[in-house]
Each structure stands twice: as C-alpha cells, then as structure tokens.
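Record format v2
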Amino acid sequence: MGRTPCCDSKGIKKGPWAPEEDKLLVDFVQANGPGNWRMLPKLAGLNRCGKSCRLRWTNYLRPDIKRGPFTTEEHNSILHLHAIVGNKWSMIAAQLPGRTDNEIKNYWNTHLKKQLRQEALVGADAAAAAQLASAATASSCPAARHMAQWETARLEAEARLSLLSSSAATTVTSATAASSSSSTAAAEHEAAPDIFLRLWNSAVGESFRCSAQGQGAAAARGPAAASAAEAGAPAALPSGGGGDDSSAASTNGTEAADDYQAFLDMAVEELALLHGRLGVSFSAFPPADVLAEASCLFAPFE
DNA sequence: AACGATCTCAACCGCAACGAT
DNA sequence: AATCGTTGCGGTTGAGATCGT
C-alpha cells in the first residue's frame, strides 16, 4: 500500500525483448555479475525496468538454463515435489537443475494440471466437483465461489495423491515379486510420495483424526473432507492453489493450523527417516533440510 | 485456404520478505 | 522500532503458435 513502483512506467519499454536488448543485458551481467537490478538498466544502457531485466536474465538468458521439453524424470519429480510442497515453484525448481520456477509453473499449469484434472474427473469426485462448480457459477456470493475454488483445488490434490498412491502400490507389488534387494530399494523410492496416505491410514493418522474430530475441526472442513477421509485420503492436506489462500484459511482457524502442522511434522519426520534409510542418490527428492523447510511452508494459517 | 478455438510460454503485476538505515 | 529500498515469489495475462473444422 502506497509503495513506490519498482520503476517509472513513463518511457520504460515493456513486452518482448529484442535480440539487441538481450545482448546488452548478457554482456553487462557477464562483465559485472548479477546484482543491483534497479541500477542495472541505466548502467547497461537498457530502457527497461530492473525487475524486467532480472526476470529476463533468470528465466531466459542465464547460461545454465536447460531448454527443451521436460524429461520423464523431471515430469515425475515435479509431480512428487508438488505433492509435498504445493505451489512452491522456486523450491521445486531448486531440485531441478537448469529449470526455472517460471518454466515449471507454466509446465504445471498447462500440462500437468490439465492431465490431473482429467484423471480426477474420471473418478467418483467428478460429480461433487461439478456440483460445486455449477453451484458457484449460479451463486453470486463471492464466498461460495471461493469455497468452490478451495474445494476444487483440494480435490485435485487428492486425485494426485491417489494417482501417486496407486502407481507406488503397483511398483511395490512388482518389486516384491522380483524379491531382489535393489528393486526393493527402488520400490521404496517410488513409494515415497505415498507417505502422506500411509501416515494418514496408520495409527498415527487415526489418532490424529480422532483428535481433529474431537475439536470439531473435521466438521469445519465440510462433508467433502469427511468423505475423503473415509476414502483414505488426507482431507486436511493442504492443496497447491487453495492452500495459498489466506482468506479461505482464516475460516478454519488456528485449530486446523495446529492439525496441519502436527500431521505434517509427522510426515516430514518419516520422510526424513526414509531419506536417510535408503542412503541412495535421490535426485528426484528434496533433501532432509528442504523437507523440514517444507513443513514450515505448509502452515497456511499463520 | 480461411477462420475460429485452443494452447503455450514469455513477460508483467502485486505482494511479502528481507536487509539497511 | 520504524521506515525505506530491493529482491524474490506466485498468480495472471496476452501475443503468437498450433490445431480443428
């Protein structure tokens, strides 16, 4: 509020970058290194906002950027990481060398989101999602629309986790059949994203749910959450899009925040243990310290 | 070939976090 | 402690490309 804009829009060029501009920026950054982006345009002779220069450099001109389509490994990594940290694109990008947060965000919004939505629509949640969507469209109440968005995002997350769960289960089955130590380790690796579901269905999850119900938190999350819990999915699991929304979060209150944090603390602890136990190169999975950080980021109600 | 619909992705915008003063 | 300036992040937009009819 009342903040001065990052640049004076008068006379500052916007839109696509010309090759000459790119060259000026690359030459300057290679000579002086990145830093002081506000002064950079003036010093480099660019008629651009510093912010625009920084974005152009980090998302496009940086020499270590990997261009081209995403590989299967990268695809899977994004799915895994998004299931854990949600829309923390910079965190996901940090685990994928050569990829930018913007690139991953675009990839998610265009390819993965669509794919997961289609898969979700095949499931039983389709009717509920459609009902919510139509109700929100029909309603002129912003709160109703907001709740529908929140619920849709949650359903997407559940579908995603279900997908990961089923694929992990398949891998575990085949690995067991093969009964080799290396394939078992690989199966554990594959099963890692399923940790939330396993935790949720474990005794820890059971006591967690009882505790949540006792405090009325489950009721506050609505009937859809209850049905999701019955289906074995973490109803309170923060979803990517909705989880970022503080206004929706505020309706749930601090009890839900404690629930989230408690459950996530347990999840992160187990993930960290798993990570340590396997003792293998785990490029598709964040290190223990990142997981710890993820648990903090999962506190949407603070 | 022409046109509209849909998709992709580079770039922009606003906000929050952080460090300096 | 308060204020200001800078940077980083996530959400959104829109122009160009591609696809379908």
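Residues 3, 6, 14-17, 49, 51-52, 55-56, 59-60, 102-103, 106-107, 109-111, 114 of chain A lie near DNA strand B (CB under 10 Å from a C1').
The two ends of chain A are 21 Å apart (CA to CA).
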